[in-house]
């Protein structure tokens, strides 16, 4: 009977404390790329992977348990890691945990997860699968999207205990940090969550056997689960397998980024609009820019250095944030959606052409602006001076006329220079029109029946 060693310390390297001393070859492999961009927290077989990489044509995987019906920005780093391997010619496998999601991973938690019902799990699996497929879709680079429920569905408990459970030693499992911390808590840990490691370990074994997967990736709290799978593969097949963890995503203040911290930013447009997603990165702090450009874009490091040099000449222009927002939004939502978000913001707040804009595309931009509803019959032929006073854009007709004469009144981003200007149907865009008084006072008027 072989024993599964949960903590394979002989193969583990904490990447923050140790670097390989060998000479890096001119054609850096993907592990060198990830190292230089700050993606690696822990890695097994460091010298082998940094020097030789993994066999050409093999696959790598990350698992995502369906605890919600979408992924969020905290998952972006793991998705980008998969994408780097995909670009390097390896096949990324995204595992949606239809089975493990029924159990719940205790890693990184101080309390038991609430068990989800079948209907909720199915809904969440579908939502996460859609996000994964969109992010990994490529014209010439394949990927695999699998559900571990498919290989656990027909496995009975006796078979699982004989084929998997016999390789695990409880004393080794108790040494796992997440288990130890839960045992020391008042709530303790249930056998259900205690057994999660076995399920994830078997996932890796199954993918290694049937999909040629030789590398498991995971968050920094997943090292014990990853090494469990590596050892299971070795003992059951004699094959070598590797593991790597990715740092926890935090901002420059050390605050965790994810769904458990404040209002989450989701990767599904139905939960966080593309415009809101785009603006999230536009609003990021300057201190995060260089690191996040390395994390969330594929731009060469030298180009990132040049971007930061340009950014630092006038940080108020948010040059780095604009590039980051464009690249991340394109990766998650596609180029067309990114361009709509980008042009929507620029057209409204920077005086661009909005004559072809659709209200639905600008609805998120308009969210915090004053909005009014009017019937067309009530405003057709109405003089603009009276109307802007009516909606509070100015406090008097005399001030409205003065603003027009000074070039500070705009209708649909066109400067109005006639104090006798009258609103007509030609001013209506997609059921709305926009008035701006001064530089920043914007008002949205929606036409209703």
What do these coordinates show?
The chain has helices at 30-36, 46-52, 76-87, 118-136, 149-152, 157-163, 170-173, 177-183, 191-194, 196-211, 223-237, 274-282, 289-296, 301-313, 319-333, 335-349, 359-362, 376-379, 384-390, 397-405; strands at 12-14, 42-44, 59-64, 91-96, 144-147, 213-219, 242-246, 371-375, 409-411, 414-415, 432-437, 441-448. It is elongated, with a radius of gyration of 27 Å. The model is unreliable at 1-11 and 16-27 (pLDDT under 50). Helices cover 41% and strands 13% of the residues.
Name its key features:
single chain; 449 residues; alpha/beta; 7-stranded mixed beta sheet; 20 helices; 41% helix; 13% strand
Strand order of the largest sheet: 1-2-7-6-3-4-5
Secondary structure category: alpha/beta
Flag low-confidence runs. 1-11, 16-27
What's the helix count? 20
Share of helical residues: 40-55%
Tally of DSSP β-strands: 12
Q: What is the makeup of the main sheet? A: 7 strands, mixed
Alpha-carbon distance between the two ends:
78 Å
**Average of pLDDT:** 87
Strand content: 5-15%
Approximate shape: elongated
Over all CA atoms, what is the radius of gyration? 27 Å
């Amino acid at each position: 009977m072989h024993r599964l060693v949960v903590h394979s310390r002989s193969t583990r390297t904490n990447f923050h404390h140790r670097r390989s001393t060998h000479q890096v070859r001119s054609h850096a492999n993907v592990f060198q790329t990830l190292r230089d961009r700050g993606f690696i927290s822990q890695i097994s077989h460091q010298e082998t992977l940094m020097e030789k990489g993994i066999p050409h044509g093999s696959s790598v995987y990350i698992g995502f348990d369906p605890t919600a019906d979408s992924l969020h920005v905290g998952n972006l780093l793991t998705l980008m890691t998969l994408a780097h391997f995909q670009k390097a010619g390896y096949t990324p496998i995204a595992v949606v945990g239809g089975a493990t999601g029924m159990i719940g991973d205790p890693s990184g938690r101080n309390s038991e997860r609430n068990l989800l019902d079948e209907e909720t799990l199915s809904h969440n699996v579908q939502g996460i699968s859609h996000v994964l497929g969109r992010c990994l879709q490529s014209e010439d680079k394949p990927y695999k999207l699998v559900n571990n429920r498919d290989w656990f569905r027909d496995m009975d408990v006796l078979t699982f205990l004989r084929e998997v459970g016999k390789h695990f030693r409880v004393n080794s499992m108790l040494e796992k940090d997440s288990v130890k911390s839960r045992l020391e808590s008042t709530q303790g840990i249930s056998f259900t969550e205690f057994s999660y490691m076995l399920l994830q370990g078997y996932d890796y074994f199954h993918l290694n056997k049937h999909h040629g997967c030789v590398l498991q990736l995971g968050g920094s709290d997943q090292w014990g689960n990853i090494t469990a799978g590596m050892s299971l593969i070795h003992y059951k097949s004699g094959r070598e397998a590797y593991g790597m963890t990715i740092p926890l995503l935090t901002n420059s203040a050390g605050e965790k980024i994810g769904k458990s911290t404040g209002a989450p930013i989701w990767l599904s447009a139905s939960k966080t609009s593309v415009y809101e997603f785009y603006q999230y990165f536009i609003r990021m702090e300057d201190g995060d820019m260089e690191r996040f450009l390395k994390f969330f874009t594929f731009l060469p490091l030298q180009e990132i250095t040049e971007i930061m040099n340009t950014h630092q000449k006038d940080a108020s222009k948010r040059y780095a944030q604009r590039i980051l927002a464009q690249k991340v939004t394109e990766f998650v939502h596609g180029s067309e959606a990114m361009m709509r978000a980008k042009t929507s913001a620029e057209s409204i707040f920077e005086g661009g052409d909005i004559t072809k804009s659709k209200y639905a595309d600008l609805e998120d931009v308009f969210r915090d602006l004053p909005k009014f509803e009017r019937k067309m019959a009530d405003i057709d032929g109405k003089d603009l001076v009276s109307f802007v006073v009516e909606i509070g854009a100015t406090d008097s007709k005399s001030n409205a006329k003065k603003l027009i004469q000074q070039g500070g009144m705009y209708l649909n981003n066109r400067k109005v220079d006639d104090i006798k200007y009258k609103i007509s149907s030609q001013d209506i865009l997609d059921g709305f029109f926009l008035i701006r008084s001064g530089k920043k006072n914007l008002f949205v008027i929606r036409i209703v029946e």
